[in-house]
Amino acid sequence: MKEFCLNTIPIHKLQKINNIQDKKLVKMGLKTIKDLLFHFPIRYEDRTQINSIKNLIFGTYVTVVGKVIETKIVFNNRRIMLCRITDGTGILTIKFFNFTPNIIKNTFTPGRQIIAYGEVIRGKYEFELIHPEYTIYKVNSNEMIKKTLTSIYPSTEGISQLLLRNLINQALIMLDHHKIIELIPKKLNKNLISFTEALHTIHNPPLDNLQKSEKKIFLAGNRLVFEELLAHNLKMLSIKDKIKSYDASPIPKNHKLINKLIANLPFSLTNSQKKVLQEIEKDISKNHPMVRLLQGDVGSGKTLVAALSALNVIAQGEQVALMVPTELLVEQHVDNLRQWFTPLGIEIGLLFGKQKHKERKAQIDMISNGKTSIVVGTHSLFQKQMRFNKLALIIIDEQHRFGVHQRSALWSKGEKNNFRPHQLIMTATPIPRTLAMINYADLDISIIDELPPGRNPVLTVIIPDIRRNKIISRVEKACLKGRQVYWVCPIIEESEILEAQAAEVNWALLKKALPTLNIGLIHGRMKLEEKKKTMNNFKNNKFQLLVTTTVIEVGVNVPNASLMIIENSERLGLAQLHQLRGRVGRGSLESYCILLYKPPLSEIAKRRLETIRNIHDGFLIAQLDLEIRGPGELLGTKQTGTIDFKAINILQNKVIISEAQQTAYSIHKLYPEKAIDIIDRWISKKTFDINVF
Ligand code: ADP
Ligand code: MG
Question: Quick check: CB of 58 below 6 Å from ligand 1?
Answer without folding.
Answer: no
